[in-house]
Amino acid sequence: MLPFAIKKLFFYAYQKGMMKMFGCVFCQVAAHEKPAKILYEDELCLVLQDINPKAPVHLLVIPRNHITSLNDDLENDKALLGHMLTVVGRMAKEQGIDGTGYRTVINTNAEAGQTVFHLHLHILGGRMLHWPPG
Ligand code: 5GP
Ligand code: ZN
Fold this sequence. Notes:
Blueprint: H1 4-21, H2 25-30, E1 38-41, E2 45-49, E3 57-63, H3 78-95, E4 102-105, E5 121-125
Antiparallel strand pairs: 1-2, 2-3, 3-5, 4-5
The structure holds guanosine-5'-monophosphate and zinc ion.
């Protein structure tokens, strides 16, 4: 059995660095290694069109650096998370859905439907959205 500290170190390395090597798609998009329709980017985050849109407007806000999900320790990422929310409003205005309405969604883990394990915030709009979601 490996000591707990060594296991934790491996896990940390896996989360922070190895994801890119093992093909985290959003790390690749952020590094411009994988094509995507990028609508906005700055030093902290990017906004791209979802490859399989579920609404006329379906954008993803992703942090530039790898974060797996909201389950990560995000104590040091508060400014980033706040910034991502300010980008949401800006994109909604640009897309012309701020007045009609839009939904922001972050899926976490399997039962919520998370399929890409790099934190991302969905912006959905341009049609009537039903509640509760499926
Ligand atoms: P999740 O299900 O994890 O909340 O959302 C992942 C989203 O990423 C899905 O809506 C899916 O269509 C989108 N997606 C998966 N792979 C790619 C990709 O390579 N490029 C883009 N632009 N979107 C992707
Ligand atoms: Zn990543």
